[in-house]
Design a protein that fits this description.
heterodimer, A: mainly beta, 6-stranded mixed β-sheet, 5-stranded antiparallel β-sheet, B: mainly beta, 7-stranded mixed β-sheet, 11 strands, 0% helix, globular
């Protein structure tokens, strides 16, 4: 079983739609959780960290369910500029490497 | 603040040739990582340095890959000899030495390697 699994998509949604991505991780000792965004032919960039209590940043909401080892990302009111690959990422402790899922590709269509 | 620098940005070589990539992390960042990202996959760690020491190289194919960070700042990653399956983007990342759970890693733009 892969350490981090996510649906590769693609998700094709119209502007203004709400879209949700899910991710599961296998290592119950994982301590930190993130969503990274990667544009075509660019490096990954941190979108948001995911905290146990859930957190929101504008149109983006991230949730963590430690019991189910499940992470989600919700994007409301999708914009064309949200088109990218979204990478689910976990880490065992503060200074250890990131473990990435394969990414979920999102295309927002006008 | 300057970001993580990498060079070259692109490299095309033939199989069995050698290639080297260079990374300059963010100033003051003690921890440096090299990741390999194959098309359609997420990045995968190759090696992690803390200052000039290796922390984790368990996934580095040591028969052909080597990396060093001699003075604890810049790092080079070498492949010798290259195989077709080494075609990928090689990403360098750095972070400060803190052990906070959400200590952020910053990525460079990557080197896109094509092996023919």
């Amino acid at each position: 079983r892969k350490e981090v699994e996510q649906d590769p998509g693609p998700f094709n949604v119209p502007e203004g739609a709400t879209v949700a991505f899910n991710c599961t991780y296998s290592n119950s000792a994982s301590q930190s959780f993130f969503w990274y965004r990667q544009d075509c032919r660019k490096e990954p960039k941190l979108l948001m960290s995911v905290y146990s209590s859930g957190n929101e940043d504008g149109r983006f909401t991230a949730q963590l369910n430690r019991a189910s080892q499940y992470i989600s990302l919700l994007i409301r009111d999708s914009k064309l500029s949200d088109s990218a690959t979204y990478l689910c990422v976990v880490r065992n402790s503060g200074n250890t490497p990131l473990v990435f899922g394969k990414g979920t590709r999102l295309s927002v269509i006008a | 603040e300057a970001g993580v620098a990498q060079s070259p940005r692109y490299k095309i070589i033939e199989k069995r040739q050698s290639v080297a990539f260079w990374c300059n992390p963010i100033s003051g960042h003690a921890t440096l990582y090299w990741y390999q990202q194959i098309l359609g996959q997420g990045p995968k760690l190759l090696i992690q340095f803390q200052n000039n020491g290796v922390v984790d190289d368990s996934q580095l194919p040591k028969d052909r890959f080597s990396a060093e960070r001699l003075k604890g700042v810049d790092s080079t990653l070498k492949i010798q000899p290259a195989k077709l399956e080494d075609s990928a983007v090689y990403l360098c990342a750095s972070s400060s030495i803190g052990t906070a759970r959400y200590n952020e890693q910053f990525f460079g733009p990557g080197t896109r390697l094509t092996v023919l």
